[in-house]
Write a structure and sequence with these properties.
single chain, about 425 residues, mainly alpha, two-stranded antiparallel ribbon, two-stranded antiparallel sheet, 18 helices
């Protein structure tokens, strides 16, 4: 008897997970709590594979490092007085001390036992659709009238729900909800070339969702999204063209990038801010949000100041630098080791599947979402702006690392 029959059915559990991913994309109040329920159910259903998990050295070592990160991060937050024994701090404690390592284990066990490639694709699409609905609702509420489609929001929009109900929120926090839908753009070259069953409808839906996502990024004056779009589309696109076209394309991209950086067309204040932060880590290596410095912004911005709240610029917009700023280098070191090991494992799998004969739509979805999450973790305040995406990144990573030994490799190259 397989594990999926030991509970209430692998297909039902997969459908429940897909539904919860849609709610997570919508960012509904309390929807993040449902993820804990999924973790418990998946652990119960996959308990017979725990011995196999123990043999997966890369996953186990990463889990240990994530536990060390979560414990050191949480203890230091309490020591510095940033957290207190309240309900909000309890949610933070779960998010950082427990959920990352648990999500990695659950992702591995789920893909190993009952979660098929098709179900993983559907979960990614459900999360993307939910995120797009959230962004479009926010844009409609913020516009007056709601059909003023050419209005751009450079700083803040009104979100339909959240911790404080309908309220204003920074555009960066809303923008990152639209970015997962960009993974659908990476599937378009494959759908056009492979022409699987129903490819016209699938291509049309993917094109519509990707176009809405790009429009949302433009409406929110987003910049990071275009970099993520390039990373998502490039793997599938490069397989569709010969090596001479690739060389020409890379040369043109390099020239445009270099010229844009030189003339500061592609400049973003996050880049000089992060470089300046690295030079000032020695001022407060054990955290406490005490680092303060001035740095040169982009063209026309002049000199900007980084400092603790209530200073406007008080987050480095990088997952590792945010941890250093808050609690110091020790927790950041544990997180860096864990993420480096996981990225090494994902790179090995990517090398295996990245070839014209094996790279498929589900691969474009999964590794495209990895690219989006990496972009956000490196250039967004990922730890604070979106807990669900932070935890989901480890869930997706665990599922991908289980690919070589999954018992249900069905729908391996099509969704």
């Amino acid at each position: 008897m397989t594990n999926q029959r030991s509970c209430f059915g692998g297909s039902q559990l997969a459908a429940l997970t897909v539904g919860i991913f849609f709610l997570l994309g919508l960012s509904l109040p309390k929807s993040f709590s449902l993820l804990g329920l999924v973790f418990v159910i998946c652990l119960v259903c996959g308990r017979r594979e725990l011995r196999s998990l123990i043999k997966a050295r890369l996953v186990v070592s990463s889990i240990v490092l994530l536990v060390a990160f979560g414990c050191s991060f949480s203890i230091r937050q309490f020591q510095l007085g940033f957290w207190s024994l309240t309900g909000a701090s309890f949610a933070d404690l779960l998010t950082f001390a427990l959920y990352p390592s648990l999500a990695l284990a659950v992702g591995w066990l789920s893909r190993r036992t009952f979660f098929s490639r098709r179900a993983m694709c559907l979960a990614i699409v459900a999360f993307a659709v939910g995120g797009l609905c959230y962004v479009l609702l926010s844009l409609a509420i913020s516009r007056d009238p709601w059909w003023r489609l050419d209005e751009v929001f450079p700083s803040a929009v009104t979100v339909p729900w959240g911790e404080h109900g309908m309220s204003g929120q920074n555009v960066g926090s809303v923008e990152q909800r639209a970015m997962p839908a960009l993974v659908l753009a990476g599937s378009l070259p494959l759908l056009f070339v492979r022409k699987p069953q129903g490819w016209i409808l699938k291509s049309l839906l993917a094109f519509i969702m990707a176009t809405i996502a790009i429009y949302s990024l433009w409406s929110l004056d987003g910049r990071l999204g275009y970099l993520a779009l390039s990373a998502v589309v490039a793997p599938s696109f490069f397989l569709m063209i010969n090596r001479y076209c690739r060389l020409l394309l890379l040369s043109a991209a390099g020239i445009i990038l270099g010229f844009g950086l030189n003339r500061q067309w592609l400049c973003d204040e996050r880049f000089p801010m992060q470089l300046a932060f690295l030079r000032h880590i020695a001022e407060a290596p054990w955290g406490g949000r005490r680092i303060t410095f001035d740095f040169e912004g982009c063209l026309g911005q002049g000199v900007l100041t980084f400092g603790p709240p209530p200073n406007f610029i008080h987050l480095p917009h990088n997952i590792f630098l945010d941890v250093i700023n808050d609690v110091g280098v020790l927790s950041a070191f544990f997180l860096l080791l864990a993420c480096s090991a996981l990225l090494f494992g994902l790179t090995r799998i990517l090398i295996i599947v990245y070839s014209p004969g094996r790279w498929g739509v589900s691969d474009a979805f999964a590794f495209g979402l990895v690219a989006v999450l990496v972009m956000q973790s490196m250039f967004q305040p990922f730890l604070y702006s979106d807990r669900s995406m932070f935890v989901m990144s480890f869930l997706l990573t665990g599922a991908l690392l289980a690919e070589p030994c999954a018992r249900r490799p069905v729908d391996a190259y099509q969704c």
